[in-house]
Design goal:
globular, 8-stranded antiparallel beta sheet, alpha+beta, 3-stranded antiparallel beta sheet, 343 residues, disordered N terminus, 12 helices
């Protein structure tokens, strides 16, 4: 536990640039929501990222947040798992209309109608037993499938959007079996290494990672560390650690692809069924007021993040926060608005 005064953690360390409306918003929100450390990347239409960091990455070592701090991005990881599946399809290693049981024959017969496309779009109908899931243990594929399969399907596959981390975890297994590579090796080869994302990797609890961010909860008028547990089989749904600088490199690739397949990227941001809004493959497509936008958020063990892309005006905001209160998406949308207004 850490007993130092809250205001010291929240406000002592501020971005070095002169204060403006964005800084004022972040400082105030850090105090209101009790967030010890925040990182923000703002990428304007011209593409040169601006990084702003506030507070502490680690309250014990008093390490400051920086553009290179390594942060658990949680469900933003679904971008990368979805791309890997679609990349393997482009390589004729699988088909997104394959039944999940082609690749995971251990699955219950009831799952036969579930396709990889359903999993990509959160329309599998799978149960969502997160309350009973043990984040502190490792599962074999057979154990994981048996655990998820204890409950019946919630809906007919393909009919209903129901966000489901277990579905993306299963996609990670499919990617490994179709490629013959571990998920982290596959995505490193296809995405991280070509894009120069040198600080980005998949989470393992035991690895020593320079500049790793810790997350905290405010309990009984003091800070307490959150326990960052995550079994490897859950990696497809949210296992990546990254930095603001690396995600800015990813954003540059999304805008002007050199290494990634533009057709795959286009499919990822297209909602299931071709609707104007909804979930595509690793991205939500939404309207922010009058603006067409693409976004994803991430939350795990008190790490919270948001990646918001204004597709009409070509502004992007990425937010990292190492505690839970408030909404990372709401922060990112407000910072996006302030950034556009001051251009």
């Amino acid at each position: 536990m850490v007993r130092h005064a809250w205001l010291g953690a929240a406000l002592l360390l501020v971005a070095s640039a002169p204060a403006d409306a964005i800084d004022d918003f972040v400082r105030k929100s850090m105090t209101t929501d009790r967030i010890p450390g925040v990182g923000v990347a703002i990428i304007p239409p011209g593409g040169k990222p601006q990084f702003r960091t506030y507070g502490y990455a680690n309250l014990e070592t008093r390490s400051r947040m920086s553009p290179d701090s390594v942060f658990r991005i949680a469900s933003i990881s679904k971008n990368f798992c979805a791309y890997a599946i679609l990349f393997l399809e482009a390589q004729s290693r699988l088909d997104r209309e394959d039944s999940i049981r082609r690749w995971i024959p251990e699955a219950p017969a009831e799952w036969e109608p579930i396709t990889l496309a359903h999993l990509l779009a959160h329309r599998s109908g799978l149960p969502n037993p997160e309350d009973a899931f043990q984040f502190g243990r490792e599962y074999t594929v057979a154990e994981f499938v048996a655990f998820v399969g204890q409950q019946p399907l919630r809906s007919v596959p393909g009919t209903t959007y129901q966000y489901n981390n277990f579905g993306y975890s299963l996609l990670g297994v499919v990617a490994e079996r179709a490629s013959g590579l571990a998920l982290d090796d596959l995505i490193s080869q296809v995405m991280f290494t070509p894009l120069g994302m040198t600080r980005t990797r998949y989470y393992t609890q035991e690895e020593v990672i320079p500049d790793r961010v810790d997350a905290y909860r405010w309990e009984r008028n003091r800070w307490e560390r959150a326990y960052p547990l995550r079994p490897r089989i859950f990696a497809g749904s949210g296992g990546i650690l990254s930095s603001l600088r690396d995600l800015a490199r990813y954003e540059a690739e999304l805008r002007r692809p050199r290494f990634l397949d533009p057709q795959i990227l286009g499919f990822q941001r297209t909602p299931y069924g071709g609707t104007a809004t909804g979930y595509g493959a690793g991205w939500h497509r939404v309207r922010l007021g009058s603006v067409d936008a693409q976004l994803h958020t991430g939350t795990t063990h008190y790490f919270t993040s948001a990646f918001v892309r204004d597709l009409d005006n070509r502004w992007t905001v990425i937010v990292f926060r190492n505690s839970l209160n408030g909404s990372a998406r709401a922060w990112a949308e407000r910072i996006l608005q302030l950034a556009r207004d001051r251009r």
